[in-house]
C-alpha cells in the first residue's frame, strides 16, 4: 500500500487558465460529469484546500464561535454517517448506489442541526461557499493529460492522497478502482 502524499499546489495558470479550458458539463451524462469532478478533485486537491482555508479564516475571524459550532457539527455528522455507512448494511447499500445523494444527505443533516444551534449563516458562508466554489471549478474545468495520468496512478494504488481517501470513504472511487483492476488483470493475462 502506498503512503499518503499531499499533491503539489498547482500553478495559478493551470488551476485557472484561460476560458477555453472550461466547458459546461454534459448534464445528460452524469457518469462523465462525475468522472470529471472526481478527477479534478484529486488533481487540484491542494488548491481546493488552500481556497477552503482562506474562506474558513475570513469567516473564522468574523465569527469565531459560530465557526467552531459549524465545524463541530459538520465533523460529527460526517463521522457519524461514515460509521453508519460501515456498520449498517442498508446505509452502506444506499451510499454505494447513490453516492451523491449520500453526500447531500450529510449536508442537509448538518444544516438542520446547525439551524437548531443558530449558526446557519456561518455554515452557509464557511462551509457551503467553499464547497460550492470547489464543485463549480471541478465541474467546469476540463481535464488535461497530466490530470488524467495522475488520476490513473492514484486509481491503480501506486499513490494515495487525502482527497483519494475521502472520495473512497464516500464511495466515489470504487467503480474507478474496479475498472483499473480489470484493465490491469487483462494486461497481465496477455
UniProtKB/TrEMBL annotation:
It is found in: Cell membrane; Cytoplasm, Cytoskeleton; Endoplasmic reticulum membrane; Membrane. The keyword Membrane applies. The keyword Transcription regulation does not apply. GO terms for biological process: negative regulation of transport. It is a multi-pass membrane protein. Keywords: Acetylation, Cell membrane, Cytoplasm, Cytoskeleton, Endoplasmic reticulum, Membrane, Transmembrane, Transmembrane helix. The chain crosses the membrane at residues 41-62, 68-85, 97-114, 120-140. It comes from the Eukaryota. Belongs to the PRA1 family. This is PRA1 family protein. It comes from Seriola lalandi dorsalis.
Amino acid at each position: 500500500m502506498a503512503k499518503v502524499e499531499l499533491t503539489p499546489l498547482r500553478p495559478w495558470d493551470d488551476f485557472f487558465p484561460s476560458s477555453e479550458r472550461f466547458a459546461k458539463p454534459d448534464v445528460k451524462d452524469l457518469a462523465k460529469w462525475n468522472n470529471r469532478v472526481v478527477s479534478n478533485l484529486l488533481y487540484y486537491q491542494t488548491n481546493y484546500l488552500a481556497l477552503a482555508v482562506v474562506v474558513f479564516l475570513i469567516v473564522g475571524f468574523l465569527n469565531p464561535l459560530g465557526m467552531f459550532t459549524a465545524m463541530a457539527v459538520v465533523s460529527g455528522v460526517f463521522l457519524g454517517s461514515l460509521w453508519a455507512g460501515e456498520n449498517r448494511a442498508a446505509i452502506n447499500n444506499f451510499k454505494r448506489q447513490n453516492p451523491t445523494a449520500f453526500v447531500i444527505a450529510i449536508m442537509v443533516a448538518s444544516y438542520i442541526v446547525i439551524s437548531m444551534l443558530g449558526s446557519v449563516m456561518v455554515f452557509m458562508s464557511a462551509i457551503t461557499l467553499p464547497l460550492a466554489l470547489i464543485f463549480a471549478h471541478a465541474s467546469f474545468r476540463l481535464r488535461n493529460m497530466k490530470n488524467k495520468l495522475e488520476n490513473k496512478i492514484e486509481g491503480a494504488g501506486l499513490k494515495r492522497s487525502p482527497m483519494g481517501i475521502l472520495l473512497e470513504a464516500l464511495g466515489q472511487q470504487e467503480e474507478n478502482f474496479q475498472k483499473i483492476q480489470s484493465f490491469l488483470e487483462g494486461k497481465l493475462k496477455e
